[in-house]
Design a protein that fits this description.
The protein is α/β, with parallel strands linked by helices. The chain contains 8 helices and 11 strands. The chain binds methionine sulfoxide.
């Protein structure tokens, strides 16, 4: 994933002056500069395109087929009725994320339906200009999962797969300051492998910490501010936010992916989306007998 096309649909050329209470005060150029600057750390080339014309958007998508590895599209009003755009996204076959500045589900009824969503990996709405940044991150996370899935069969067993997943995720996302996997041994989580500062929490009882809570609740937990969560067990004083994603094998939790960030509020629904897909990959062919412990 080294080249991504960002498409803005109709009326987005008027950003800054068009209903700023809904769409924000930034102009389209300012939004594009923000997306470029905020995603610069990923080292991905971005192309930007805006049109008010359905056919022009479709032509750009067709041309992109051989030029880019993924698309982030804000289809604007086309979202709700353009079957031609939907067919174009499906025909081109590039991984595509649908984004919206506003939360289309909290507005008029006609905006709740997206005919584009079924041919996209994911819909991200309501984060203003960050919706595009999250769209780029979703494509990068998707590419990591695809790479892992492609390599998985040739990796030597469960232990190697768990280590490779941590390595790929940690390398791709600079906001991941500590990336690790805990495995469930009886009623205790045991640290299997990690990249980042050594953690004092190499064993965590189920029910304790954010990690233990995720097992007890059988759910992914996102903590935007670890200092405001009484459950949090500190690994590093620099940690500001955390996400914990359970790994299931044959409907049982066998472990979890744990990621800490020094950035506040670093994790959102799109991070949950690709990390749960990674957890799903890790749960396949999971064999506890193949685990090698470092300590
Ligand atoms: N913060 C985790 C403990 C693990 S360290 O972050 C690596 C928790 O609260 O469970």
């Amino acid at each position: 994933m080294n080249r991504i096309l960002i498409i803005h649909g109709p009326n987005l050329n008027l950003l800054g002056s068009r209903e700023p209470e809904i769409y924000g005060c930034d102009t389209l150029d300012e939004v594009n500069t923000y997306i470029r600057n905020t995603t610069a750390e990923y080292g991905v080339d971005l192309d930007f395109f805006q049109s008010n014309h359905e056919g022009a958007v479709i032509d750009r998508l067709h041309a992109a087929r051989t030029e880019v590895n993924g698309v982030v599209i804000n289809p604007a009003a086309f979202t709700h009725y353009s079957l031609a755009l939907r067919d174009a996204i499906a025909a081109v076959g590039l991984p595509t994320v649908e984004v919206h500045l506003s939360d289309i589900h909290q507005r008029e009824d006609f905006r709740r339906v997206s005919v584009i969503e079924p041919v996209c990996l994911l819909q991200i709405a309501g984060h203003r200009k960050d919706s595009y940044v999250y769209g780029v991150e979703a494509l990068l996370g998707h590419a990591v999962v695809e790479q892992f899935a492609g390599e998985a069969a040739s990796l030597a067993g469960t232990d190697a797969r768990l280590r490779r997943a941590v390595q790929l995720l940690h390398e791709r996302f600079p906001k991941f300051d500590w990336t690790g996997i805990y495995l469930l041994e009886g009623e205790e989580l045991r640290l299997h492998n990690f990249i980042g500062a050594p953690s004092p929490h190499t064993r965590i009882p189920v029910g304790q910490g954010i990690c233990g809570a995720a097992v007890a609740e059988e759910a992914t937990i996102i903590v935007p501010d670890v200092n405001a969560d009484p459950r949090y067990l500190a690994c590093s004083v620099e940690t500001r936010s955390e996400i914990v994603v359970p790994i299931y094998s044959e409907d049982r939790i066998v472990g979890e992916i744990d990621i800490d960030s020094h950035r506040p509020d670093a994790f959102h629904e799109h991070d949950r989306w690709y990390l749960e897909r990674m957890a799903d990959q890790l749960g396949r062919h999971f064999n506890f007998e193949e685990i090698v412990w470092d300590d």
